[in-house]
Amino acid sequence: MPKLILIALGLALAAGGGGAAFWMRGPAPQLPGATPAALPDNLPLPPEMPRLADGPEYDRCLSLLRDDPDEAMRFAQAWDATGGGDGARHCIALALLGLGEPDRAAERLERLGASSQAGGLARAAVFGQASQAWMMAGDPNRAFAAVTIALTLAPQDVEMLVDRSVVLAAMRRYRESIEDLDSALALEPDRAEAWVLRAAALRHLERVDQAFVAVERALVLAPDNAEALLERGILRQLRGDVTGARNDWQRAIQLAPDSMAADLAAQNIQLNELGPQRR
Q: How far apart are CA 38 and CA 132, in angstroms?
């Protein structure tokens, strides 16, 4: 699933920002984008199509990004110096991301998206990457601007609609987030991830029953989705079903033991064991 960076950010939303633990204890949850996110294991490499360039140099540079962003940067800079064009500039921007400089990467991606002679879909993908980089840099306002440009170029791109819904949630604009998710689900009604995010946004609006319907839909589509189980556990907790919440969180840990969903589920189980006075 080519969700790139925002998989982790979306999970933070589904968990209540800083995690369901914050949501259950009472303080306002820390929203995704408030602080720089950790770099993902997989960089936001472009999908098979569209691409900004073709040829062995582009393929080589993108391949290096996965394992050695320093070498990718050296390769891209040398390629750029010999006329590498959009492909080299794209690889430089993504290498900056891999080297932990998401703000510089985002600025370069925005410039590239604006100046490239590639088609609209390819440029939309670059603006989408810029948006994700701004989220990693902790700037949801600039992320929103970039992904909105992407959607002007590709208005029915489900990935971009879901991405913007996460950005809007980071800005506490939950109703607008739901509008984007509804648009995405109108195009892809079986997208479990979007149903999970919709449930989380509804929960933030205190529409718990509607949120429960949404997360149940996600679990019909993807019964072993750890993020959906995490979210349903949060909703069950809010409904007073402590046993059901614990069962969902334990299942999430079992299914994806090394994931953020598992970490958050474990935190919630621990809080329940401490008792209401310690939450």
A: 12
Provide CB contacts within 8 A for 218, sequence distance 6+. Answer: 192, 193, 195, 196, 199, 225, 228, 231
DSSP states along 22-82: HHHHSSPPPPTTSSPPPPPSS--PPPSSS-S--SHHHHHHHHHHHH-HHHHHHHHHHHHHT
Same domain, 124 and 59: yes
Please return the burial class of 171, using the count of CB atoms within 10 Å of its CB with bins 0-12, 13-18 and 19+.
middle
Dmax (CA) of the chain: 65
Lowest-confidence pick of 64-68, 155-159, 205-209: 64-68
145-176 confidence digits (pLDDT tens): 999 999 999 999 999 999 999 999 999 999 99
| 3 state DSSP class of 188 | coil
Under 8 Å between Cβ of 178 and 191? no
For residues 193 and 104, state if they share a domain. Answer: no
**In terms of domains, do 69 and 150 share one?**
yes
Q: Which residue did the predictor score with more confidence, 14 or 250?
A: 250
Query: Is 49's pLDDT higher than 60?
Result: no
Q: Domain of 112: which CATH number?
A: 1.25.40.10
Task: Indicate if 124 and 217 belong to the same structural domain.
Answer: no
Q: Is residue 246 part of a domain?
A: yes
Shared domain for 152 and 61, answered yes or no, is yes
